[in-house]
Amino acid sequence: MAEAQPKPRELPYVAAITEGVRTVMQEQPDAFVAGEDVAEAGGVYGYYNGILNEFGPDRVFDTPISEEGIVGLGVGAAATGCRPIIDVMFMDFMGECMDEIANQLAKMRYMFGGRATLPVTILSMAGAGASLAAQHSQSLEAWICHLPGLKVVMACTPYDAKGLIISAARDDNPVIVVLNKMSLALMGPVPEESYTVPIGEANVVRSGSNYTIISFGRMVHEALAAATQLEKLGIDAEVIDLRSLQPLDSDAIVASVKKTHRAMIVHEAVRFGGFGGEVTAQIQELAFDYLDAPVARVGAPFSPVPFSPVLEATYVPNADRIVAEAKRQLGL
Amino acid sequence: MAEAQPKPRELPYVAAITEGVRTVMQEQPDAFVAGEDVAEAGGVYGYYNGILNEFGPDRVFDTPISEEGIVGLGVGAAATGCRPIIDVMFMDFMGECMDEIANQLAKMRYMFGGRATLPVTILSMAGAGASLAAQHSQSLEAWICHLPGLKVVMACTPYDAKGLIISAARDDNPVIVVLNKMSLALMGPVPEESYTVPIGEANVVRSGSNYTIISFGRMVHEALAAATQLEKLGIDAEVIDLRSLQPLDSDAIVASVKKTHRAMIVHEAVRFGGFGGEVTAQIQELAFDYLDAPVARVGAPFSPVPFSPVLEATYVPNADRIVAEAKRQLGL
Amino acid sequence: MSSEITDDILLDIHRRMVRIRTFEERAGKMMEDGKIPGALHLYVGQEAIASGVMVHLSNEDYITSTHRGHGHLIAKGGEFTYMFAELYGKATGYCKGKGGSMHISNLELGMLGANGIVGGGPPIAMGAAFSCKFRKTSNVSISFFGDGASNEGAFHEAANMAALYKLPCVFICENNGYGEYTPQANHQAIVDVADRAPGYGMPGVVVDGMDPIAVYEAAGEAIARAREGGGPTLLECKTYRYYDHVGVRGMGLSYRTDEEVEQWQLKDPIVNFEARLAEQGLLSPEAAQAVHDEAQQEVDTGIEFAETSPNPDPAAVTEDVYA
Amino acid sequence: MSSEITDDILLDIHRRMVRIRTFEERAGKMMEDGKIPGALHLYVGQEAIASGVMVHLSNEDYITSTHRGHGHLIAKGGEFTYMFAELYGKATGYCKGKGGSMHISNLELGMLGANGIVGGGPPIAMGAAFSCKFRKTSNVSISFFGDGASNEGAFHEAANMAALYKLPCVFICENNGYGEYTPQANHQAIVDVADRAPGYGMPGVVVDGMDPIAVYEAAGEAIARAREGGGPTLLECKTYRYYDHVGVRGMGLSYRTDEEVEQWQLKDPIVNFEARLAEQGLLSPEAAQAVHDEAQQEVDTGIEFAETSPNPDPAAVTEDVYA
Ligand SMILES: Cc1ncc(C[n+]2csc(CCOP(=O)(O)OP(=O)(O)O)c2C)c(N)n1
Ligand SMILES: Cc1ncc(C[n+]2csc(CCOP(=O)(O)OP(=O)(O)O)c2C)c(N)n1
Ligand SMILES: [Mg+2]
Ligand SMILES: [Mg+2]
Which residues does chain B have within 8 Å of residue A248's beta carbon, measured at their own beta carbons? Predict the structure, then answer.
């Protein structure tokens, strides 16, 4: 008879982020945290709470509202021996620092013939659902996944949040860790010790035999809920959390689709031009003969994020829409 | 016997751009041209030559090197009754004004409940091939096609350049006209009178029966060259110039693929995360049962644009690479 | 120059301030009651600025606002019905419920929107000022922005361009001493944001932003200069927000002391202005009360309108993207 | 303070200027001969600045440069072999041919890159200055940028942050009177970019950028202040570029007069400095000639090296993207 395992410690997503950052700061003396209201206030979502107290103002400090300057600070410091953790409060603000991200951070190593190393970790909050309207709710991962030189990961559980942050900070490349503001209270097991979640490896969060749902970020939870509903329709869905969009674990996707023959990609971002296009294209490139139906894509409709909760509820993909789309796709 | 037609007037691409801008300025008293070195210098590629002289400094003026300010000028002026033509010299610089483009220009109408109209035309130069390295050679249309509220067109011939600019300026929505720096000397017929090239309609530039190459921008010419080579292999390729990426003429794509059963999308941008993913996803969504082979994608490899001509030649897609990829795709 | 101010203007400013305060107090309450979703940035404490500036403007003059935008729209003539409806996310709101607090706007009133992007306003205001000049009107365009926003590159670029082209633009910095929870001393090494003006070639002026007459006069001068082709001004108004950065009690952080709040409340723009008007025999306690009552009535009507208004049709989600 | 300058330093500055001039003249020629692809922005005329600044620095001090970056790299110790190889796009170049003129760099020399983005340098220099402070070194970080770049938001944000954190940073504006073909008066309403310094809370200084000693002294003071924890300085050097914005004759536009060019050439930093050194008995015509000859020799060797170097292997195109 198996011994009773002690119940693993559970933490909310927000605290797992904090713990990831704290672990990095403990392990890496060259790491520092910079961003708007990250120090004294502990971040507008509280995920830097206690970091200033523990590591002091030389290593944790507030910046002016200057996104281009903040990312530039990270680039210059990283190129000269530091390991910056840079906070871009909302992913929507990346437009303000897109030149620093795209033209400096992502490209410096290449332009210098490999003779620069940029271990920058950027944390940023994405996602709709909080009635924050068009400029505080976006998921813009498609912009940054198209930029050679960057790595991009998205954490949907407390475990992954901590582990991906630690991996990102240990990586010698710029890594953007996209977090989700609607998941802050989500509970989940988080080991106390330091651990990593590998960048570039997808996570099969539910195994299934005849349908594959590929997702990332908060939508993974909707995909899981949809899978439960789909069961009643005789669909045994495998759910894959990509976790890492860049590099993308194409092998995991293809292996699943070769088994299930039918696939869907789900993300929160606007469907048109979203990352789902890349995933879909790769599936049909790499597993064409295995596909029994076109790959389906679920994403936000073609509009900015609306404010009104009624509209936003229609806007953000959810389990019901995933199920409906699967039925349409499969002619059920 | 048909009467001999007078040979239509030919203009280089660069002069067609100028003529498009001039026509707009003549037709629309509320139009003005603003950008870096567009007035006195006539633009760094000369495509505003003569515009200042003809329309005077109130309507054609140089700006400081302030991309965010320049696009903001367009937003504020358009919302209050002007029809700005805004020059963002190189598309690579869009990172500097991405907030204005993505969060203000694209979204203002929606955020205001439809109660604002933003007839802004942005002209910008994309493309590699001139040894201008990583920050002056990019094709970033994937960023802007993912933004509801914008329209995005790309001109590959002198005819289209003039006609699309006139259409863009007549449109009451923000339209980004992406031009190509390697095509400036390209000759082609351009009517002297005012005309439009409709936004949202693809152009079948070569009809064929058993293969479809979808492209846009300069790569259309490479696709045409590839089609000639493919002929020798018994492949009769139809070549579609999308011209308008947003809105996308999905009907034209689907109609062709339903006829040919095999398709490829070609663009200059980095393949991973590029617009080709959207096109591929749509093809398999809308014409799955007609496909005899996976849709192929040709784009730049996953790196920034290199400086060295030797490397850049490897980097930028061309007819040979299109042919090679078609052979691989079709197992020839 | 205060001799220029007529009694009507003084009473007008007063009424605008009271309308803002009354609206904001109720908006805060309704948010705490869970009736208003999303983030609400209240203008309470800063009323003298919007009011002292806006009496100079017509509907053909433009303003851009900030995330803290209700006060600007109210002072520009915003109606409480459509405003509350917008905050509630209703179809009858100024933005049909699509914008909410952070994007509330009305172009007919010349109000080019609150903005969720700090520093989002200045370039747009500069563009509207260009438009005024281009179309040969004598209108002006005003950009309201915070001390925190003065560190955004967007402000820098807009200010430089406005000065270069001598645009009819006024940059009004509402310096309330904080950008979110960060005190000014932790976000810039200067005390007066107005010190940035000479770097653009425009005048910089500092006034007491708790004093509506000081604001009125300084703004009047800047606006007159702008209308006459004299170019932009950077006008800094020292002020304070009474409530937290977002909402009323916000995150409950202790980034400022109760004493500091109380000290500033001693300078309350409405209380002190009412005392002054009373002293001058311009506004009796009863008359003042009537203004408050009227605003209260307007608030009640607005809330009623908002609460009984329909939600947007879900199908509207993809409407209004394109013209 | 010129008494502080030793003879060695004077000769060092002279040699740096000559090296830059000689390199640039040949680079321009090779571009016109079609040997160097892409865009080349020559530093001729501005040599006093890079040279007068760089004699204060070690390899552990950082600089960021601009699109006009050869001069900065040369003054920082760049070797002509690897530089020409880079301009030629050869595998032996400083960036293995991947960067070219606009991204030429060498981190071992503390040169954090030319930059194709106007205003790209200041935030990175500010970050490197932070790094110097964070790692408790006494090193400094210098941002070179143009008059045109001073209008980019990136400069504004970097300057504010450097002043706020009292970083060991010096912002050196090489005001050559033009941003591309646009004269300064058409891109900003000020005459001295240094006027922007007080708006960030840092000292602003203007010097004659054609006079290497003036640059040396002003830069020395700013760098010393930075090293001692006194924070950043905005140092503006008035200068001129002899050739067109890009290349030698460029697009052949008539945006400036021949007289203007000639007037500035009368202030030539090398010619006048040589006269001065000769007068002081420090540098005979023969000794001067030897410096030129040596530079010429170095250029010849560099060109030889570049021309005989291999092209990059096409397979290298996707290397060096990630560490
Ligand atoms: C580009 C951008 N960066 C950061 C934020 C988050 N944010 C919202 S309000 C605010 C503080 C603004 O301070 P200030 O300009 O002084 O205005 P105040 O709130 O004091 O009125 C910040 C940092 C934002 N909305 N936009
Ligand atoms: C962000 C950005 N905008 C525009 C350009 C195009 N451009 C290259 S150099 C230049 C002029 C720069 O002027 P200045 O800063 O005075 O430097 P100078 O060339 O005079 O040395 C411009 C506009 C660019 N490279 N990057
Ligand atoms: Mg403030
Ligand atoms: Mg210049």
Answer: 272
- pLDDT tens digits, residue range B89-142? 999 999 999 999 999 999 999 999 999 999 999 999 999 999 999 999 999 999
**Residue B331 main-chain phi, psi, to 5 deg:** 65, 35
Q: Which atom of ligand 1 is nearest to the CA of A36?
A: 23
pTM of the model: 0.98
How many angstroms away from the CA of A253 is the closest CA of chain B? 16
Q: How high is the pLDDT of residue D2? A: 42
Closest to B276 in 3D by CA, of B219, B199, B197, B208 = B219
Number of domains in chain C: 1
What is the Cα C222 distance to its own chain's centre? 17
Contact residues, chain C, for A66 at CB < 8 Å = 151-153
What's the CATH code of the domain at C223? 3.40.50.970
Q: Is B136 a catalytic residue?
A: yes
Give the contacts of B110 (CB within 8 A, at least 6 positions apart). A134, A303, A304, A306, B148, B149, C98, C320, C321
Is D322 a member of any domain? no
Distance B64 CA to ligand 2 centre (A): 10
Pairing, β B60-62 against β B10-12: unpaired
Contacts of A93 (CB under 8 A, 6+ apart): A67, A124, B99, C117
Q: What pLDDT score was predicted for residue A33? A: 98
Domains located in chain B, CATH noted: 10-189 (3.40.50.970), 203-330 (3.40.50.920)
In a domain, D298, yes or no: yes
Nearest C-alpha neighbor of B63 from the set C277, D237, C162, D114: C162
DSSP code string of A256-269: HHHHHS-EEEEEEE
What average pLDDT does range B221-240 have in this prediction? 98
- What residues contact residue D281 under an 8 Å CB cut-off, 6+ apart? none
Q: Report the residue of chain A nearest B297, measured CA to CA.
A: A281
pLDDT at D1: 42
Contacts of D288 (CB under 8 A, 6+ apart): D14, D274, D277, D278
CA D207 to CA D218: how far, in whole Å?
7
Q: Is residue C319 part of a domain?
A: no
pLDDT for res B3: 64
Q: Is the residue at C318 inside a domain?
A: no
Nearest CB to A76 within list D94, D98, D128: D128
Cα separation, B169 vs B164, in Å, equals 8
Residues D216, D218, D221, D227, CA torsion sign: negative
Protein residues with C-beta less than 5 angstroms from the ion ligand 4 = D 146-148, 176, 178
Helices D285-308 and D269-279 meet at what angle, rounded to 10?
Answer: 140
Give one DSSP letter per residue of C100-112, joined into a string: -GGG--BGGGTB-
At residue C2 the predicted structure's pLDDT band, cuts being 50, 70 and 90, is very low
Q: In which band, very low, low, confident or very high, does the pLDDT at B2 lie, cut at 50, 70 and 90?
A: low
Instruction: Note the pLDDT of residue C1.
Output: 42
How far is the C-alpha of C167 from the C-alpha of C223, rounded, in Å?
Answer: 11
Is A67 a catalytic site residue?
yes
Kindly tell me if the per-residue pLDDT of B312 is higher than 50.
yes
Burial class (CB in 10 A: 0-12, 13-18, 19+), A283: buried
**Has residue C190 got a pLDDT over 90?**
yes
Mean pLDDT of C173-189: 98
- Copy the structure tokens of residue D78: 């760049």
Structural domain span for residue C78: 7-313
- The average pLDDT across D297-316 equals 98
pLDDT for the residue C250: 86
Long-range Cβ pairs for the range D290-293 (8 Å, 24+): D291/D14, D291/D15, D291/D18, D292/D18, D292/D22
Tokens 């910089």 belong to residue: C204
Model pLDDT for residues D38-54, shown as the tens digit of each residue: 999 999 999 999 999 99
Question: Per-residue pLDDT averaged across A221-236, rounded?
Answer: 98
pLDDT surpasses 50 at A54: yes
User: A304 CA to middle of ligand 3, Å?
Assistant: 27
